[in-house]
Design brief:
Helix content is 75%, strand content 0%. By secondary structure, it is mainly alpha-helical. It has one domain.
Length: 53
């Protein structure tokens, strides 16, 4: 996300399409989504990794 937020082409396109605050908002939402995903353990992971030990 840091590379995304620092990319002038992507942030410029988002700002042009939706306004100056859109790039920062989008980056914040994507960070939050990643952290939410990263904090979860799926059923598959439990079945394959927890039972392996």
């Amino acid at each position: 996300m840091e590379a995304f937020a620092a990319d002038p082409v992507i942030t410029g396109a988002l700002a042009a399409a939706g306004g100056a605050g859109v790039p920062a908002y989008y980056a914040a939402r994507r960070r939050a989504e990643f952290l939410d995903w990263h904090s979860r353990v799926s059923t598959w992971e439990i079945e394959h990794y927890l039972t392996a030990f």
